[in-house]
Amino acid sequence: MTVREIRQGIYSVGVIDWDRQVFDELLPLPEGTTYSSYLVKGSEKTALVDAVDAEFEEEFITNLARSGVDGIDYIIVNHTEQDHSGALMVFLELFPGVKIITSARGADLLEVLHQIPKFRIQVVEDGDTLSLGDKTLEFMITPWVHWPDTMMTYVREDKVLFSCDLFGAHYACSDLFVAEKCRHTLLAKRYFAEIMMPFRPKVTEYIERLSGYEISVIAPSHGPCYDDPAYILDLYTEWCTGDLKNKVIIPYISMHGSTKKMVMYLTEALIRRNIGVRPYDVGRADTGQLAMDLVDAATIIIATPTVLTGPHPKIANIAFIANMLKPRAKFAGIIGSYGWGGKTLKDLANIMNKLEAEMFEPVYIKGLPSEEVYKSLEDLADEILKKHKDEKIV
Q: How far apart are CA 121 and CA 211, in angstroms?
């Protein structure tokens, strides 16, 4: 990536990964990603804020050479996950005197993940500062967005916040600052859903803390920077604490058609009641898109046949992911069909044990849906509408 100046003496020196398709062997990355790194040149000292994935070590070194930097005194490690620290080791070799600055948990993880000796690391506490001469770095210890080691770094004189993974977006682009807000909003929401949603209380706490800071630029570890910080702060506030939508998400799978008949019937019944609904065939669906809908849907209905004695494995996987992401949905339910028996309802209840949603009475039937079953689905749609009205979601 071309080295670019964000503010005087502050440069973006990270790399673009145009081709990455999956992260953590789990998250689809349909538009690639970036690994952002920043160089802060003070009048006396120079600091590098985060590194990049080890795969891009050579490009990263080239970027730093292009920046004209003749030495690095500190490497700020806001987060030790390898996509931000993988290329760290080469800098310890290139700059033998460099000191790593990180949180206490970050120091422990660097020793475990990279076997970096303690004497190379300087641990900072919340509110500590580091002078680079005419620039002062302030450190905010902000664990659990999304690892326990996370911290953020604020340049007081320039009002630039290096927010690490918080406020990021997984997509490859050449823009230094967000240029297409409509597109970015969707990709940032996808990132929030996949990575930050389980940590909403902490995210809300840190947004409140940031309200006490004057911020001109937010520079995250993935995606472009924000020269309009209020834009992303407002979006995060909405995703964390905003109103839920009059919307039902139905992840489903159907082997021989019975469960799909039920899903399509319920979908039509909800549409007739002016409730937003989105069925997802999880055999084909983009799980990132589904996760985005989980951010603000009021109700989740899981639909699955029974395979042997339990839920279809693809639905079990989605239920596990939903349980892990902890969406705010207030209501949930299970519908589907079985052939001869099993314990699908019990298994799904166990898988989704972290969801705090009120459960509807399941509509789980043997074989093809009958008129009586369709009546039960109408009743379920009525109950969903009633609950949404009671919660003033409609």
A: 30
